[in-house]
Every structure is written in structure tokens, then in C-alpha cells.
Amino acid sequence: MSLSFEGRVVLVTGAGGGLGREYALAFAERGASVIVNDLGVDTKGGGKSSAAADKVVEEIRVKGGKAVANYDSVEDGEKLIQSALDAFGRIDVVVNNAGILRDRSFARTSDLDWDLIHRIHLRGSFLVTRAAWNHMKDQKFGRIIMTASAAGIYGNFGQANYSAAKLGLLGLANTLAIEGRKYNIHCNTIAPVAGSRLTETVMPPDLVASLKPEYVAPMVLWLCHEQCQENGGLFEVGAGWIGKLRWERSQGHTVREKNQPMTPEAVRDQWDKVCDFTDATKPSTVQESLQSIVSVLSRVESEGEVDANPTAAAASASGINPTEAVGQKLPPTTFSFNHTQCILYALGVGMSTKDPDHLRFLYEGHPDFGCLPTFGVIPSQAAMMDGGLSSIPGLNIDFTQVLHGEQYLELYKPLPTSGELTSEATIADVLDKGSGAVILLDVNTYSGSELVCYNQFSVFVVGAGGFGGRRTSEKAKAPLPPPKRAPDAVVIDSTTRDQAALYRLSGDWNPLHIDPSFAAMGGFKAPILHGLCSFGFAARHVLTQFADNDPSRFKAIKVRFVKPVMPGQSLQTEMWKEGNRIHIQCKVKETDAIVLAGAYVDLHSTSEDSPENLTQGGGLQSELVFAEIGRRIKDSGSELVKKVNAVFGWEITKDSKNAAQWTIDLKNGSGSLHTGPYSGKADVTFTVSDEDFMEVVQGKVNPQKAFFSGKLKVRGNIMLSQKLEVILKDYAKL
């Protein structure tokens, strides 16, 4: 579905040429009413003319668009916004693009050089945005773009004035993002690289010509659309490439003790540790930035001596130490079962003989008898239920404060209906959320030596935060918001009064779900339904609506648990289909309270698409290669993870169209192979045709030649391509 700006009013400053002109034309083409602002000055701020703005307005009107010109300086911000109100009655989007240059080496920069740059870039953006702000607040919608520069981010010789103003815009944008959030006003910053009057003074002519403004405008339009929820971001963009930037900070080192002076010699002696970016943190708020400093002060006053590492100090105080805990393995658990457990689970998540389609999961004599895919959480939960976390060093936590926050499950083959499964659990990461700690527990479940499924439990420990750890983790399987449109399907299913009593027989014996007195101690009026029971209901609904009730179509599910459900309430599952990914949101029908959010189910297109059923008849030769890689990962995954430690994405094309997507995860657990959309993030992604892929892996074409000829495209950490030989040559014996 294309992005429309019908009904939106957009102001673009400096829109008489270059990037601004391209923004104005692009917004108008998609239905926006546009105020084309341009003072008509030269690149140094001299002169004045209405011709530039008038020409762009005429271009828009000739194409049937709506636009008016404005010739005021951005220092007259109120006049610019009034033009929008007079012409169109509102203001929705402000793109602060106007700018000039007065490049001088620092020693030669005059007061005028400094002041004029700041007046146009920083003060001008402030004045225009301030004039629009209250209008955006009143209408509960606004999108603002600030234009920074690589010179502001990194510095550039001869541009001290320009660099200072451009980085000042980033600080302004970050604060506006915070203040505007509750009013649905989002503010983002871009550092564009494009050919314009400004960049032609610092770039070679041929480069200016190739860096076209139309390679930047789509990014600006997306950030300004109502569907886009990005806020407070900083992006470099140019030539069709977009990258997001963030701050990174070393763990740091404390160089003083109580009642002892802090000396420059102490700083010198610990300088290498101060600058060591091993296990660097990525603070994103002032509060996160101050955590380490506050923890140091607390330790100084309470114990008289400061630990060298403030994170470790805070960890000791909170009972959580990520350095000790992460990577620790829990004792393996074994789960023996037969068809009885499979049927009991199906009943526990709401299946009934009243529905003929449910019989295949309820009757062991059915010709298609099988196990519900979400039964995959049951063998793995023993790692949580059997007290394994209490044995982990660095996790001294109060287990009465433990909540199940999120769950991810991925199947590598359909679950058996009987047998013995072994689960191996590892502490993948421990995160500091301030009010609590999040423990990421990765669990791989095997049938013999064959990997059957992978679970990631996200456990929130109330009150265990503040130990100075990282707030986010790339290892976490992230929840995703549903599309901004009406759901494609809605299913309403009633739970019974005894739903929790029935579900607990599958192994979750927590008395919170059965004992009224225990539930009362937790603040509930009555026992609540298991979150994983709602999880099972929602997955069933997706299978019914989009997979013909075929469990072999199921690939993965991710949910975030939001609020409890009371047994007897009705669950309403809303579903949005986006390719093979079904976004879901689950509510209590009676209260409209969301209980599962950020959720999705990934499906195989057909049963033949699953890794278990790849054949040469699928039309892609590369399928055989990935099938072999998958088998090798199952046999030697742990060894490969040690050698490679990366996630590789593959986009295979045929006849210039995307034909298949594969992800080789050799970073997490014992390694895994995924087909279709991948919920995590690849370190490097390769795009290549099926034919060229086979030429490369068979050694007929040198990968470097394929890259430089354009046959093999790479994005991400290109240096990791050196490790491909380990995967393709040593382990995919063709």
C-alpha cells in the first residue's frame, strides 16, 4: 500500500532548489498541500529573490498538485506558519531544510560568519518549529525534520561554525522528541549527502552529480508519515543508502576512593580502561547516562570505597551481575511424553471436539494426528520451573518478583507426538530496565542430537534494576507493532472457568493460577490464566485462519505479555497478514484490554517450503545448498558458532525477482538455519541470483569478482564475508 499525504499540510524551508525542491515535489505528488519557502539568497546568504520558490510552486501546480510560495526568512518563523494556516488551515509537517555556508578556517572565522550560520540553521529551525508546535499539540499530530550534517557529527576542516550549528540541531531535535511524544509529535534528524549548491563547494563535480536529491527524499517522506513511529532518531542518508546512528559509551573506570583526592596521575594510570569499549553500553536517555555516576556516588557514601567498575558495583548492590551470569548454562532437563500430553495441551489451549477440525489434535487415532506447534514451550519450561535460575552465579534475585515478559518459539521440524526431548538453556543476556531486570533465557530442545525447537524466555524481575547494565540487547527477539490498518481477520474465542486449572496440567504448576489465596497475595481478585495459555489460543487462531490448520506450516511465534486474563473471559485475536508473517494482537473482549502485543506468527508458504521438505522440484538450485548447510549446522553447530560468530542473511533472486530468503545464524545457541522472514538482525546480508549463487559455491566464480561485477550485492559488515568459506566450502559439501 503506497504512502499518501492527502489532507496533510507540509512546510519545506529552503525549497527553491536541491533537496528542498525534491522534498516539496515528492510531498505534493503524494497529495500533500505544500508551502514552498525560499528567500532566494545565494549560498552565503546574500541577495533575495522570489523566482526559486515560484518556479517550484509552478512545477507542482502543473502536475495537479497544491502549493503556495513563501518568501520570508526562517528567522520570521511565525510568518511561515501563518502562510500555511492562511492557505490550508493547518500545519502537519515541518521540514527544516534551509541553510547557507560561510566556510572559513577557525582562525579566520569572523563574528558575522559565526552568527549568520547559527541564525539561519539553528535559530531559524527553532523559530519555525516553535511557531508550528502549539498547532501540532492541539491536533495531536506533527512530524518535524531537522537537517544536520556529517560535518556536525564528525567535524570538518573549515566548517567550525556550520558544524556547531548542525550538531546543535540534533540536541534540539532530541529534546523535541521527548517533549512531543505524548502529543504524537515526532522529531527526527537527518544528515543527508546529496548534490546541491552547498555540497558542490566541498565535493568533486562528478560526485555531486551522482548524489541525487531524489535518493534522499523517500527517507524524509517515510519519517513524516503517520504510519512511521520513529522518534528521536539520527540518520545518515544518501545515494539510496540509509544508516541509523546512536551513541556508544565504554564501561568506564572509577579512579577515586572516599576521602582520597582524585589525581590526574590516577586518570593517566587507568586511561586504557577508561577508553576500553569492550562490552560498551549504548545509553539513549539522560537517566541511563547518569546511572553509572549515581551508582558510584552511592557506593562511595555507603561503603567508603568505590569499585573500579561502576556497573559491577551497582550489580553487587542489586544482586545481579551480568558479567557473571551471561553465558552460564542451566542444568539440562529431560521431558518424556506420549500422545496423552499432546492432547491435554490441546484441550488446555481451548480445543474442543465441537469443532471437527480440532479432532486431529485431540484423537490419537486420527489419520493426521499431530501436536500443536506451541506445545514446543512445554518441554523447555522445565528450565524455568525446576529452579535452574537459582543456581546461576550473578542472579541473586527474589523469585516472588519474577514475571514472564515475552516469549519466542521457533520450530525446526514438526513436533513429535511422543518421545524424549532434552532441553539445554543458556543465559543469553541480562538487561537493566531501571525498575527491574530482564533475563533472556535461550533454550534449545533436542530429540537425540537433532534440534527440534528454540525458545527465548524474557523474564522481568521487579525491583532488580539499577545495576548499571545495558538496556537493550541484539540477542533479544524483538516484538513488532501491527500495521496501521484494520485487521484482515478477527477471531473471538471463549475461555472456560476451568481453563487455567486445565492448562496447568501441562506442567505450569504456579499456584497463582489455581489458589485464590495465593492470587490475592499477588494483588489479583481471583486466579489468573497463564500467559502461555493465551499464547496458545492466539497461535491456534492463526493456524485456522491462514494455514488450513496445518501444523507443518508453522515456523515461529513472538509475543509480549501485557495484562492478565481471567478464566471465563473471551479472547479476541486480531490478525494482519503481511506476506508469510501474521501480526497479531490479542484482547479481552469484555474489557478491550490488550493482553498480547507486538506479536506475530511466521508461516512457511506451503509445507514444501519448510526446511524438512526441500526438494529439487522447488525450482531453486540453492535450496539444496541451504538444506545441506542446515544439516551441517545440526551436526556441528556449536563448532561453527565458535569459528564464525555471526548471522548471515541471503536473498536469492530468480528472473530479477526475490525468490527465497535464508538466514544462517551462527551466533546464537548452537546455530540454526531459517527460511523466510527473520525476526532478528543479520550482521551481513548477501543478494545474489540463484544461478550466480551456485557458480560461487561451486568455485566457478570468484566471490570478489562477483562482488565487483555487481552480481553479488552485500550490505552490513562486509568484512564477515571472509568467513563464508567456513560455511560454504568446509561445511556445505556439494
TrEMBL record:
| Record flagged with keyword Oxidoreductase | yes
Alphabetically list the UniProt keywords.
Answer: Fatty acid metabolism, Isomerase, Lipid metabolism, Lyase, NAD, Oxidoreductase, Peroxisome
**CC per GO annotation:** peroxisome
| Annotated PROSITE patterns | ADH_SHORT
InterPro entries (UniProt xref): HotDog_dom_sf, KR_dom, MaoC-like_dom, MFE-2_N, NAD(P)-bd_dom_sf, Peroxisomal_Beta-Oxidation, Sc_DH/Rdtase_CS, SCP2_sterol-bd_dom
The domain of life for this entry's organism is Eukaryota
PANTHER family in the cross-refs: DEHYDROGENASES, SHORT CHAIN, SCP2 DOMAIN-CONTAINING PROTEIN
Quote one Gene Ontology molecular function term.
Answer: isomerase activity
According to UniProt, this protein's pathway is:
Lipid metabolism; fatty acid beta-oxidation
- This chain's protein is named Peroxisomal multifunctional enzyme type 2
Protein family (similarity comment):
Belongs to the short-chain dehydrogenases/reductases (SDR) family.
Ketoreductase domain: which residues? 8-182
